[in-house]
Amino acid sequence: MLSLKNLGKRFGGVVAVDRVSLDVAAGEVHALIGPNGAGKTTLIHQISGSLDSDSGEMHFFDKDITRMRPHDRVRAGLARSYQITSIFRRFSVLDNLALAVQARSGSSFSFWKPVAAETALFDEARAIALQVGLSERVGSTAATLAHGEQRALEVGLALATQPKLVLLDEPMAGMGPEESKRMIELIKRIRAQVTVLLVEHDMDAVFRLADRISVMVNGRLIATDRPEKIRTNEEVRRAYLGDELAA
Amino acid sequence: MNKVLTTGIVLGVAIVFPLVMHVLDQAFYISFATRILIYAMAAASLNLVLGYGGMVSFGHAAFFGAGAYMVGILAFEGVTSLWLSWPTAIAVAALAALAIGAISLRTRGVYFIMITLAFAQMMYYVFVSMKAYGGDDGLSLASRSTGLGVSLSNDFVWYYLVLVLLIIIHYFLHRLLGSRFGRVIEAIRENETRATAIGYPVYRYKLLCFVISGAIAGLAGALIANQTSYVGPALLHWVQSGTLMIMVILGGVGRFWGGPVGAVVLLALEELFSGSSLLGPYSLHWQLPVGVILLAVVLLAPQGIAGAFAKKSR
Fold first, then answer.
1. Which residue of chain B comes nearest to A121, CA vs CA?
2. CA atoms of A22 and A38, how far apart (whole Å)
3. Residue A244's pLDDT band (boundaries 50, 70, 90)?
4. What is the chain B residue with the closest CA to A49?
5. B208: which chain A residues are within 8 Å (Cβ-Cβ)?
6. Domain range for residue A40?
7. CB nearest A75 (choices: B194, B199, B205)
8. Is the CB of residue B176 less than 8 Å away from at least one CB of chain A?
9. Out of B179, B190, B202, whose CB is closest to A89?
10. What are phi and psi of A32, to 5 degrees?
């Protein structure tokens, strides 16, 4: 579904992403792991289009999206969440989600009709709130939500665009065990409808969720395989997992 | 209900004001109030981009002045019908906003402030150098625009015409801000990155918002040219942009009534302190007390006067 070929990105003399080739298959949860500074988030930025790539190409389904603008990629079905929560803080949860629904349902170059009268938008936003576990909080201002709830809204915003592939950049960042558990449940629920490319440091979550895992070290992909194979892969152990999995 | 009541009272006051002044034999204040209404419109146009769109335009005088000059130049060339000159003023201001916005909106933050300021100052010097249209001295209009069948030189007629236009503009803004487009504009102000990431072509929305704002400022400019029967480069000077910005900040950035409230308060303060009746010879330094009050408002009511009121009534 998503296919990267020799994708590269450098910042000055630093090669952040080094000829990465990766295929994400429809329906899978594909995890991308690696130590800090490996280039995972840079790669996510390239896929979502917020960073231009220096070399290589990207295909989404059969379309070349290497030079496609970020908002057009969203329309093509490629949405993302952010490692650092990025929501509309002064809007209510419902308005946050309704905005994302509005983005793909009809033109928003409409200047006269009150949006408040468009019940379909808000019905759908409520359905997404339910899906991400925020039904009770739809009326709250986003800034007042607890950290875990904001992370859920972050994922909800991506889902509200009805993506075919969603890029989740460390959805469990900064979460306690209880919140992490809820996020894992959420990702398990959404995988029925949407393919997931998941960047995550929580190895427990990664091994519970992923169908396949790609390991990135120093800008390069050193392995892509099923979780049990990754667990026993010598190179991966040396480069990254080490003691974390010995236990 | 409260909102409707407030709106009703404000409208009522605006409607009876000239009659009261007429009875009190204070005709000057009718003309003064008209000036306030015109500035209210200009400030509201700035508030649309600054308060709702998050675009800190420091060059709004360019559109205000362009609108005014179109009326002045057309009158100079013998075209006095408002059916021709006012739409021209709006269109030229919108075009200027399109050109300036298309370039400026590629920048952010301080750069955006500076580049809009620079463009406005460029336009200022263009009009200063247009000797055919008065250059530094500007142009005097022989009379106010024609075309309505009544003479706009009558202060009553003029006041109510401006009031009706201001109401129409505010109703338009009210609809705009409640529409899909308005929601997107505010979302972009809140978080541009996120707005892009849910699929909005952010640049297009901002540019259109900028153009709408410029067009409204152009109409306000057309009105100010008629108000004073004079257009001069001072209308495009950066001080004018600053005045509009002060009005918005005083009234309330991103508050629906921010523009009008700011225009009323700033012009009333200016009138109060610059007349010799209150401060005598010190009235030459009227900016000082106005500045102190502005400081106080910014410190005590960071959401502006309209913002402070909205909080109280809650």
1. B180
2. 15
3. low
4. B197
5. 109
6. 2-246
7. B199
8. yes
9. B190
10. -120, 115
β-strand A29-33 against A195-199: which pairing, if any?
A: parallel
Chain A residues with CB-CB distance to B205 below 8 A: 108
Q: Dump strand ranges (E) for chain A.
A: 2-11, 14-24, 29-33, 55-60, 63-64, 78-81, 165-169, 195-199, 212-217, 220-225
Domain positions in chain B: 2-239
Query: Given CB atoms, is B180 within the 8 Å cutoff of chain A?
Result: yes
Between chain A and chain B, the number of residue pairs with CB atoms below 8 A apart is 97
Instruction: Determine the length of chain B.
Output: 314
With CB atoms and an 8 Å threshold, state whether B199 touches A161: yes
Model pLDDT, residue A24: 95
pLDDT at A173: 86
Return the pLDDT at B312.
Answer: 64
Looking at residue B132, the DSSP 8-state letter turns out to be G
Selecting from A69, A90, A157 the residue whose C-beta is nearest the C-beta of B190 gives: A90
Q: How far is CA A205 from CA A45, A134, A184, A188, A201, in A?
A: 22, 21, 7, 11, 8
- Banded pLDDT at A241 (limits 50, 70, 90): low
User: Which CA distances in Å does A132 have to A105, A121, B188?
Assistant: 20, 17, 24
Q: In this predicted structure, what is the pLDDT of residue B117? A: 96
Averaged pLDDT score across all residues of chain B? 92
- Specify the number of domains making up chain A: 1
Enumerate the residues of chain A whose CB falls inside 8 A of the CB of residue B181. Answer: 108-111
Query: What's chain A's Rg over C-alpha atoms?
Result: 18
Q: What CATH number is attached to the domain comprising A17? A: 3.40.50.300
A196: β partners: A29, A166
Across the interface, whether the CB atoms of A50 and B193 are under 8 A apart is answered yes
Q: Could you tell me the two tokens for B163?
A: 């009031």
CB atoms within 10 A of CB A169: 24
User: How far does the CA of residue B85 sit from the closest CA of chain A (Å)?
Assistant: 26
Distance CA A103, CA A110 (A): 12
Q: Specify the residue for token string 């007629």.
A: B157
